[in-house]
Amino acid sequence: MTTIFDVKNMSYEVNGKKILKDISFTVEKGEFLTIKGPSGSGKSTLLECLASLISPSSGEIYYKGKPLSAFDVTDYRKEVSYGFQNASLFGETVAENLAFPYLIRDQEFDRKRALELLKKVNLSESYLEQKVTALSGGEKQRIALIRNVVFMPEVLLLDEVTSSLDEATRHDIGEAIRRFNQEEGVTVLWVTHNTEEIKNATKTMEIVAGQVEVDTHA
Question: What domains does the chain contain, in order, with CATH numbers?
């Protein structure tokens, strides 16, 4: 099995305060890892380090056997996609958002692919021309999710992407993420407190006071 992430003795501190404390763990290709812990324990900080949004204060993150610092950030983010808690869409329409991954790759927008992805999150074809300003919070989160997988990434890093959604929308997004993992082989690391989402995982990591404990439960 291919090791996707190998985190070795990583710490992160701000103004002398350690948010993450000498943590080490591995993530294998195709795993579905949920991350839980109290507010302020360092969960989001960990994801941001893995996404190369911030750099560890000490220790090292290896991605596919190479130090994360050795990767070109633009190339890395084509393989490792980050989903924020509050979906951020831009432009006027859903189509503009789903076309963006093609634009940065100098490729033509694949409308058929966009429609397939809308279906995966229980949205009709008509949403492609919807105005961003007319979307609900749950609809925006679904669009943000499928924008992340227009070009299927190696890894999905998800930071409480369903925390503010109703139960039906939460379920739809959770099912889509599970299918991306099981059918497409995408490695998932998902910060969540939801027990149903945690049940779908192969492993759960708990972060308490900046330190980790990993539980294999599937």
Answer: 3-88+137-216 (3.40.50.300)
